[in-house]
Design brief:
By secondary structure, chain A is mainly alpha-helical. Chain A is 60% helix and 0% strand. In chain A, α2 packs across α8, α12 crosses α13 and α14 packs antiparallel against α15. The chains are: A mainly alpha, B mainly alpha. Chains A and B meet through α1, α3, α4, α5 and α12 of A and α3, α4, α5, α7 and α8 of B.
Amino acid sequence: MMQNHPPLEELFAYRDGELDLEKRSLIEAHVLSCSACQTRLDETSDAEGMLRQGLQDPSDDYFKGLAGSVMERVAGDESPRERPGRRASLDEGPRGRAPRLPWAAILSAASAAAAVGVVVVMLVQRQDAWHGAPAPGVVGLPDQTESPKAAEGNLDEDAPVVNEAPANERALDAGDLVEAKKGDLAANKAAAPSAPPPAAGLKVEQMGAVREEEITTQSASEALPEAALQKAPGDVATRVAALRARAEAAAVGSGPSTGGAGFAEVAARHGLPLLYDPARVSGGMLLSAEPDLRVLYQTGRAGDDSARVRLYLAEAARERAAGSFDAETFDSIVHHYRRAVVLARDVETARIARKRLEDFVSRNAPGE
Amino acid sequence: MTAARSDRTQLADDEVVRRVRAGETDAFAELVRRTQRDGYRLARRIMRQHEDADDALQESYVKAFRALDRFEEGRAFGPWFLTIVARTALSALRQGKRRAAASLDGPAPDGNVPLAERVADPEQDPAVLEQWLLAERAFEALTEEHRAVLALRVDADLSYADIAAALGIPIGTVMSRLARAREALLEEMRALSPKRRMVDPR
């Protein structure tokens, strides 16, 4: 049994979405049938979820003052190369001495942790459908030992290594962060321009079944409406509607714990549902809401609704680009989606963001 | 001024970078605002102390500012900046530019309440806090090398390629180091919490 487990680094690389298609299929085949490896991935994800939630932030004053401090240091920096990395006095500006205890964040971590638990369980799932056109440069093969431009002793060099990844590679990476459930897997397989190999498709479906079971056991508070989901596995719309209703109810009930009425207010002002829904949101609504959403995002007032704001920003950018993307726009949209998945406080938001990301990439990935 | 600033908040990172390069130096503040929370988290994870994280973060911004002419258009500014933060923080660690590490239970020099005290707060759900504290303690117990690679993956959410660039190591090494770090984290968590059931599948 033991010799059948993939090396841990490959197992984790699989989870991180850093394997190429072939390798991924191999690992996936194993993970599907190996509860030990699933447990290993879940435990790791749980621990990392706690770490992600737990880090204490300094006070908001610290962040308000930071840009000012930095600008003082770079002011008049006409010949950057001549100035060594000398420390300017750091006395100016707030220094984060007045702590804002992140109880809100920790508490929401309670529910978020549950969500994270669910989300990460699903991380092991792979979606081959939208990886139909794998980027040649997908990273992560263990034998890939290309040396980055930065050498160990070079850490202090001012010039950071620029790591250029082609847009489609970045997108693959983004997609691998996200999770899938059976319903949308089916939907995606139907919609994807390039279908996965039959074997992979079967695996994915099996996994969907396994995963949904686990979701219920993982987290009662985040339990999905299993009956609806299982009765109509093919009826994506029904499933989505059920999930969405639940997610919205949750959002209205709890509300953002930071940033006050920020997002809810903006959403209401522009007639947007709290969670993006293509059927209820027009392009015009997106464009009219975009400036307000941007302000929320950039001022940090999105708070616990960051993921939903990000999701809307991605949608608005798509709308604005109207199907014609330069690399920059493409990247930025992918990034918004990706952050939405990562920052999501509830499963449904993560799911929709992931789904929309896939949709976006499958329609717009370079070379397609 | 106000108009210009609010206008900037609407711009893509690339455009802000372009403006800074074109001499609109104060537009750099917008880039700071966009990246400061992610940058802080990463620096804090690596440096542990608020003051050290603050130093490293500010230093990183100065470096980024000076290296901005080499920032490649079309690239996302955030990950690029985070690799600078990582390298700056790690370099500072190696040069001993760090205040004495405080224990999680000791007084926090930045004025934050020690973790142990927070756990004692009756208003908090003890189970959640316990889990959180467990993870934090386990993370604290890791080697610097393991903490750094985990921070880059978990907190900064960087790809293996970006992590490789930030650490100056090959991607293959990122993979193996990350795997060891994750194992070490779970190992520490088990050690710290014997009653917590953690299945070792192997």
